[in-house]
Automatic annotation (TrEMBL):
<dbReference type="InterPro" id="IPR011042">
    <property type="entry name" value="6-blade_b-propeller_TolB-like"/>
</dbReference>
<feature type="domain" description="BPP">
    <location>
        <begin position="19"/>
        <end position="350"/>
    </location>
</feature>
<keyword id="KW-0732">Signal</keyword>
<feature type="signal peptide">
    <location>
        <begin position="1"/>
        <end position="24"/>
    </location>
</feature>
<dbReference type="GO" id="GO:0016158">
    <property type="term" value="F:inositol hexakisphosphate 3-phosphatase activity"/>
</dbReference>
<dbReference type="InterPro" id="IPR003431">
    <property type="entry name" value="B-propeller_Phytase"/>
</dbReference>
<dbReference type="Pfam" id="PF02333">
    <property type="entry name" value="Phytase"/>
</dbReference>
<protein>
    <submittedName>
        <fullName>3-phytase</fullName>
    </submittedName>
</protein>
Length: 352
């Protein structure tokens, strides 16, 4: 009798555990598309919008390895092999710009950083051909260990004159307010992109590292994750100075602050999504700030997702197709994939 009682008790524990796991599963938002896997280690995505036919837009994602790549996917998560760029030396993050104007040339292009060569790499879109002369050295003159090992990257197109800048981070760096370096991009006579250093800025706690960087082009702000501390905010225009405008998202994270994405709902409003990496969740903040203080970003909600240990993410408000009518949210997962979510499953925008 005691054995039977024990068996039933054990079964009850197992069933309760199963129900508990099921409840956790139910609470997590599921993707509608999971990409084909890359070779080594996904890290960060970017979204290229096909203006003529949004259903033919592209997702570009990094495969982080010494034999790494920029993988290109369609909206069904299939790898487009003839666009994928292989042989990159540990690319971490990727970003892109559309409609960059250089004299008589208008370009779409993607940028990534090779950690092992300390070079910025640039590829035209949508064909993914190199336009960087083999790579642009950055953080030149830095000699301390890992101070040139590229990590985060973001592009900023200034609305007033369409000037394009790249903001770059590294594995580690100084705590004197010069962690990030910003370069103005140009085009030489050979048709290759060039980069000129315009400023060094950005506080760093020295606790972990800075990887995730995002730019709000319309409002003109840079956001970056100081892992284990919070999200820091600065002006994107180097002519507006190096004052830190805000430090938010300082509580409620399990461990690392990671990928940052900005969703535009119009008129300067929207949401800032920040990855709570070890919790497999995203914290959502008000893009426009609070009443009376545009730099006070209040927490709206926390969204549990199916991605695992998400480093990088990106979001768009474009109506791509019948699946992604209000936009797409793309997040890296540590099983070598990227996951695509409907924006309305992540954010409260169904009636907007």
């Amino acid at each position: 009798m005691k054995n039977i009682t024990y068996i039933f008790s054990l079964l009850a524990v197992v069933l309760l555990a199963a129900c508990g796991n099921s409840q956790i599963d139910v609470d997590r938002v599921k993707p509608v598309v999971v990409t084909e896997p890359v070779n080594y280690d996904t890290d960060d995505p970017a979204i290229w919008v096909n203006k003529e036919d949004p259903s033919k837009s592209l997702i570009i994602g990094t495969d982080k390895n010494e034999d790494g790549a920029l993988f290109v996917f369609d909206l069904d998560g299939k790898i487009i092999k003839n666009k994928t760029v292989s042989g990159l030396k540990r690319p971490n993050n990727v970003d892109l710009v559309q409609g960059a104007v250089f004299a008589n040339d208008t370009l779409d292009f993607a940028v990534t950083g090779e950690r092992l060569t300390h070079k910025l790499r640039v590829f035209s879109l949508p064909d993914m051909k190199p336009i960087d002369g083999g790579g642009i050295p950055v953080y030149v003159g830095e000699t301390a260990l890992e101070h040139r090992d590229l990590m985060g990257i973001a592009l900023y197109k200034r609305p007033s004159d369409n000037a394009v800048f790249v903001i770059m981070g590294r594995k580690t760096g100084p705590t004197d307010g010069t962690y990030l370096w910003q370069y103005k991009l140009g085009l030489n006579d050979m048709g290759d992109v060039t980069a000129t250093l315009v400023r060094k800025f950005g506080k760093y706690s020295g606790i972990k590292e800075i990887e995730a960087i995002a730019v709000d082009h319309e409002l003109g702000y840079i956001y970056y994750s100081d892992e284990g501390v919070g999200v820091r905010k600065y002006y994107a225009d180097p002519e507006k100075g190096n004052e830190e405008l805000a430090l938010f998202a300082t509580t409620g994270f399990r461990d690392d602050h990671e990928g940052i994405s900005i969703y535009d709902t119009g008129n300067g409003s929207g949401f800032i999504l920040v990855s709570d990496q070890q919790a497999n969740a995203f914290h959502v903040f008000k893009r426009e700030g609070s009443v009376g203080d545009k730099h006070q970003h209040e927490l709206v909600k926390v969204v549990k997702v199916s991605t695992r240990e998400s480093d990088g993410s990106e979001i768009s408000n474009v109506a791509f197709n019948d699946t992604f009518k209000k936009g797409i949210f793309v997040a890296m997962s540590d099983n070598k994939t990227f996951q695509y979510y409907r924006v309305e499953d992540i954010l409260d925008i169904r009636d907007q």
